[in-house]
């Protein structure tokens, strides 16, 4: 998020001075790191939680279409960045990887059948395939079908337009470009306090992470793109807009294999239904990952618990966030989400063997010794109004001088559209003047692709060619 915003601002206002602070020794090592997330280019092609059932039991495609629209903007912006030399060759950060959904049991098969019927004629979902035929699904993803029980109801959808994205590489490349073009990128510097000044600016107090040397600068605008840590910095800023917010940290683990014999049998990101009580970010999926040119498979995530808001955070994070204005909401979340707590406890008790047994629901023939356990990134789910919120949202001051990002999924996949919205909200006096330049970067800005078959087809084909994607 910070890399995207910094790059947009630098392209729009190269005369502005921009400083970026990173508390670690390198950028992109928390949630953006390749192994800390699934690398899914989230476009709602395979994620069932983006088409929820309503009270009348019908499915709603609104969120799926909105997320797909956002991801098309991501593809357009990345294409423009490649063309301008801001990003390296597309294969260094994005690769074609079909997105599939695979379900078992009559209830889930009926759900997927209805979902396919809902989406197949939507322009942004053109080309989606559906099958209940084991021979067809075997061609799509052989590892799913080996030694599958006869008579077991199952179904799958497949979208060839899916992608695998290395968000760590993307983040590093954007910051490298910024650093080479006059932006002051300070690693090993931790922002400690944000204090509003009488003239409306912000005093940013920081310290060197190693030498503990303190420092401060004044800024007319501050963006807090610090993952789970954003909540605490925004609380410290004193802006009233952060009142009522809290975070519930959820960690994760992956099973990973790089065995070529196994990897060659699976080229897709395959999502399924989440277990009862599991948060949407814990939907099980078996993914092809391409990192530094090497293909691997990841399965998970398996939920873990840590009180930290960042993977390299502090053990007291979950306690030090508590304020009088969010305590009631947080307690309500605790009392009304017993199924989530039960799910987390059951996940924590799983051994490596039990985790592999869970994987066998996807791939019946896998063996324990072929898979290693990796620690995924830390997610800080937003709590507000007594509810856990599973989206991504901007929290900004009324005058637009400071903003931060809270939440998790769909996260990095939709960073461009989220940061474009932030520009509109926080820079109202400049935005109109920026629109022509933004239109050059994102040609379909301001349009709804899903309302126009020809426009959707043209835009997706254009970015597929620019990003060297096969679909």
Q: How helical, in percent, are the residues?
A: 25-40%
Distance between the termini: 26 Å
* Global morphology: globular
Radius of gyration: 22 Å
Total strand count, please? 20
Beta fraction: 15-25%
The helix-and-strand class reads: alpha+beta
Mean pLDDT: 93
Instruction: Work out the oligomeric state of the chains in this entry.
Output: single chain
User: Major beta sheet, specifics?
Assistant: 10 strands, mixed
Counting structural domains, the number is 1
Q: Can you count the helices?
A: 15
| Uncertain ranges | none
Protein name: Probable malate:quinone oxidoreductase
GO molecular function: L-malate dehydrogenase (quinone) activity
Keywords: FAD, Flavoprotein, Oxidoreductase, Tricarboxylic acid cycle
Pfam family, one: Mqo
Overview of this structure, please?
By secondary structure, this protein is of the alpha+beta class. The chain has one domain. It contains 15 helices and 20 strands. The protein starts with a helix and ends in a 5-residue tail after the last helix. The model has no long low-confidence stretch (mean pLDDT 93). One of its GO terms (molecular function) is L-malate dehydrogenase (quinone) activity.
């Amino acid at each position: 998020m910070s890399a995207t915003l910094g790059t947009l601002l630098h392209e729009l206002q190269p005369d502005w001075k921009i400083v970026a602070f990173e508390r670690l020794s390198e950028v992109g090592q928390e949630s953006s790191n390749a192994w800390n997330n699934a690398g899914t280019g989230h476009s709602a092609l395979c994620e069932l939680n983006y088409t929820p059932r309503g009270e009348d039991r019908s499915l709603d495609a609104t969120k799926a279409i909105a997320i797909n629209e956002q991801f098309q903007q991501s593809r357009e912006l990345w294409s423009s960045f490649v063309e301008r030399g801001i990003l390296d060759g597309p294969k260094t950060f994005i690769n074609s990887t079909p997105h599939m959904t695979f379900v078992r049991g009559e209830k889930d098969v009926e759900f997927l059948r209805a979902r396919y019927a809902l989406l197949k004629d939507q322009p942004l979902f053109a080309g989606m395939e559906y099958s209940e035929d084991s021979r067809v699904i075997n061609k799509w993803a052989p590892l799913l079908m080996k030694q599958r029980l006869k008579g077991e109801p199952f179904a799958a959808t497949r979208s060839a337009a899916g992608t695998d994205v290395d968000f760590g590489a993307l983040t590093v490349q954007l910051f490298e470009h910024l650093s080479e073009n006059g932006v002051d990128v300070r690693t090993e510097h931790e922002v400690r306090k944000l204090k509003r000044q009488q003239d409306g600016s912000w005093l940013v107090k920081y310290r060197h992470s190693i030498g503990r040397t303190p420092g401060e600068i004044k800024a007319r605008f501050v963006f807090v793109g610090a993952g789970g840590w954003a909540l605490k910095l925004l609380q410290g800023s004193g802006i009233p807009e952060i009142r009522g917010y809290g975070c519930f940290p959820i960690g994760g683990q992956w099973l990973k294999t790089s065995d070529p014999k196994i990897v060659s049998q699976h080229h897709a990101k395959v999502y399924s239904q989440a277990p009862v009580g599991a948060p949407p970010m814990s939907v099980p999926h078996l993914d092809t990952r391409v990192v530094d040119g090497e293909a691997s498979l990841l399965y998970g995530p398996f939920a873990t618990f840590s009180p930290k808001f960042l993977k390299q955070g502090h053990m007291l994070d979950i306690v030090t966030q508590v304020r009088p204005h969010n305590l009631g909401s947080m307690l309500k979340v605790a009392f009304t989400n017993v199924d989530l707590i039960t799910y987390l406890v059951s996940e924590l008790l799983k051994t490596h063997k039990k985790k592999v047994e869970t994987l066998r629901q996807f791939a019946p023939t896998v063996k324990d010794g072929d898979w290693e356990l990796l620690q995924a990134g830390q997610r800080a789910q937003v709590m507000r109004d007594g509810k856990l919120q599973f989206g991504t949202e901007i929290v900004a001051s009324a005058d637009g001088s400071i903003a931060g990002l809270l939440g998790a999924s769909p996260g990095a996949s939709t960073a461009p559209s989220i940061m474009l919205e932030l520009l509109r909200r926080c820079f109202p006096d400049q935005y109109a003047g920026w629109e022509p330049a933004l239109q050059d970067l994102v040609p379909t800005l301001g349009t709804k692709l899903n309302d126009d078959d020809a426009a959707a087809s043209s835009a997706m084909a254009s970015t597929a060619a620019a990003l060297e994607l096969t679909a």
